[in-house]
Structures are given as C-alpha cells and as structure tokens.
Amino acid sequence: MILDNCKFLELSNQDSISCCLKSYCDTLLFYYLGHLAVSNLDGAISEIGVGGSTYAMTELSQQHSRDFYVFDVDPAELAHFGSTEHWPAAKSVLKTVDSKILGQFNWPKFSYCHIDGSKNFDITLSDLKFYLNNLSTNGLICQDDYSNSKWPTVTDAVKQLETLGQLKILMIGDSSAWLTKPEYYDFWMNLLESDSEFGLLAKICNLADSTKLDKYPKYFFVNARLSNSVLEDLDSSEIKYFQQLLTWSEKSSPDQRLEYLKMPYQNQCKIGSAFKLNQAEGYRITTVYNDIKGIDWPQTPPVTLDHIKQLPQQIKDEIKEVHKIDLYERIVKKINTTLFYDE
User: Fold this and answer.
1) Could you give the C-alpha distances from 210 to 163, 170, 181, 215, 216, in angstroms and in order?
2) Can you tell me the distance from the alpha carbon of 287 to that of 232, in angstroms, rounded to the nearest whole number?
3) Is the pLDDT of residue 30 over 50?
4) How far is the C-alpha of 1 from the C-alpha of 89, rounded, in Å?
5) Residues facing residue 222 across a β-bridge
6) What is the pLDDT of residues 37-59, one digit of tens each?
7) How far apart are CA 254 and CA 322, in angstroms?
8) Cα dihedral 81→85→87→89 (10° resolution)
9) φ, ψ of residue 336 in degrees (nearest 5)
C-alpha cells in the first residue's frame, strides 16, 4: 500500500511541515492520484502556486525520480516550500515566474499538475490551458479550490473549458477537481476502476458515482452525505490500512487538525465514516480477535454482555489496553460504553 507509508503525512502529523491546505480526504486523493499518474505515465510533474501540497509533490518527485517544476511569483514562498530538506533526492526545479507568461517558454511534458495559483478567472483559465497544452499522454491535472464558494471563478473556468470540450472531469473532492483531456478520459476511468488501493480510498472518502444521479459522462465525487453500506468485506490487512490513515489526522496536534478543517467546507466528507460508524456489530472483533487476544483470553470472542461481565478483571484490563488501537471497544459500545473503564 502507498498511502500508509507517506512521509509527508507523517511529518505533517509531527508538526515538522505544513499540511496541505486541503481537507484530509482531498489530501489523500491528491497524493494517491499523483502516484498513479507518475507510476503509469511518462513526463515531469508540476505545480503553480506553492503551499503544503508542494511537500506531497516533492515526495512524488523523489519516489519516482521525476523532475518537479514549481512555479510561483513569490521567491520567498518558493524557497520555503520548495525546500528538499526532507527529500534530498527530489528533483525540484524552482521558477519565480508569473504563470500568465508560462506559455511563452518551452517546457517538458507533465504527467501530473497542480494548480493553486491566482483565483482570478482569466488567470485560472490561462493556467488550465497551459497545462492542457503541455500534458504528457494521459496526463492529469488537479485544480485546487474547485467548488470552493470563496472562489467561484475557479469553478467557472473549469466549467467553461468542459463546455468547450477541452477537458473532462474525473473526480470532484471536497474542494479540488481532477481533470484530463477528453481523449485520456477512458484511460483514467479504466485505471481507477481496476486499482485496488483506489477502491479502498473510495470507501474511506465516501466516493460516489455520478451516473447514479444520472450525471454523464461519469465521474467520481466525494459525497459528504453518503451513507455507505457496511464494510463487511475487509480483511485484517485492510483494517490495518484504514486505521493507519484514519489516525493520521486524529493524532495530529489541534493546530494541524484545524489546518485541515478551517477551509469553508461546511459539509465536507466525514472521512472513514462508514468504517468507523456503520460497521456491523461483532464484525471487526471476529475478524481480528486472534490477532489481539491475550494468552488467557477466551478462545472465541465474548460478544454478549453476560460473557463480557464474566471476564476476570485482568482480562478486562488487557482489553482496555488494546483499546488504544480502537478495535474492540467499539463493538460493545452500544451495549455499555463504560464497561471496561468504570467497573
């Protein structure tokens, strides 16, 4: 798995770097879709407008040995976020330049691009056209602040090019959109639908299929109101993956958590809601019980209230300790939330 070993997430969690100024759901999608792009395509990667997301792109540069062209008008910001201190093998190429004149120069083809520059309509339109003209075959663009009500001009620019048939939308996050050329659309749909880790992310991020709402051509979108079905098909490795990603933001400092939540997303996705809230009673413990049970624990899970009450205090104390990884207590929460804490 890719995301459960991300250095930029870990560094952000430790307050060592700024986190991406996106929702946590969009951050996971931003990095993973970038990974898919550079893993499957030729070409450099690029970003207009630096910020916490620059660290995620820098990690992609180092991991995949790709040139990373970073454009910004502020040399101080460029130097700060373009630092490769944590990724010494990254191949960053920092350019202090106004994005409006990028089209006047020759650049390599780009497999993954991120636009987080000016929110002016004409400049956003220019940035989109620049990357569309410089995409490698099957290249992908992430447009920041799409559907952000603070910057409606960003959404307007994307929709204008979509109406003109110059791009297609593949995915809409809390406040980001992933776009490609119409001729590359089928490649990406086939790739996303066949990729196993993306399938897991779809469950964590509550991704829905637009065709269920009679919206064509098909795209995925983060549905903050989606009530996912119970995830009864998870094996122990998938549970571990989910727990890892769901605890990155939970273990972060209050300031870092606020960083992910301070954007104007009143209805942003509740990450992992299906996994954390709608799990079938008894399912997770029966799946992972043999991995977590102590030497003296019963051979089969004590899932009824009477069986639990009969456990020796020593075993209750051990189970309480296991709660740190939040696998057991949630199963009996509806029976008695304080069972192992206050008895």
Assistant:
1) 17, 10, 19, 5, 7
2) 10
3) yes
4) 22
5) 207
6) 999 999 999 999 999 999 999 99
7) 24
8) 110
9) -165, 100
Nearest residue to 235 (alpha-carbon basis) of 193, 284, 303 = 284
**Residue 160, burial from CB neighbour count under 10 angstroms (0-12, 13-18, 19+):** middle
The answer to whether residues 178 and 170 touch, using CB atoms and an 8 Å cutoff, is yes
Say whether 138 sits in a helix, a strand or coil.
Answer: strand
d(CA 212, CA 210): 5
Residues with Cβ within 8 Å of 181's Cβ and at least 6 positions away in sequence, in order, are 132, 135, 139, 166, 167, 168
Structural domains in the chain plus CATH codes? 3-222 (3.40.50.150), 281-343 (no CATH)
- Quick one: how far is CA 135 from the chain centroid? 23
Of 51, 67, 11, 6, the residue nearest 31 (C-alpha): 6
Q: What pTM value is reported for the model? A: 0.79
Closest CA to 293 of 319, 330, 257, 269: 319
- Give the gyration radius of the chain's Cα atoms: 22
β-pair partners for 110: 44, 135
Q: What residues contact residue 35 under an 8 Å CB cut-off, 6+ apart?
A: 2, 60, 63, 64
C-alpha distances out from residue 125 to 2, 53, 62, 122, 128, Å: 32, 21, 30, 5, 5
Which pLDDT tens digit goes with each residue over 59-118?
999 999 999 999 999 999 999 999 999 999 999 999 999 999 999 999 999 999 999 999
Given a contact cutoff of 8 angstroms between Cβ atoms, the answer to whether 53 and 22 are in contact is: yes
CA distance 69 to 287: 46
The more confident residue out of 263 and 243 is: 243
* DSSP-derived secondary structure letter, 36: H
What residue spans of the chain are helical by DSSP H?
7-13, 24-40, 53-64, 75-81, 121-133, 152-163, 185-194, 196-204, 236-251, 254-261, 273-277, 283-292, 305-309, 313-322, 329-332, 339-342
pLDDT tens column, 315-343 = 777 766 654 444 444 444 433 333 333 33
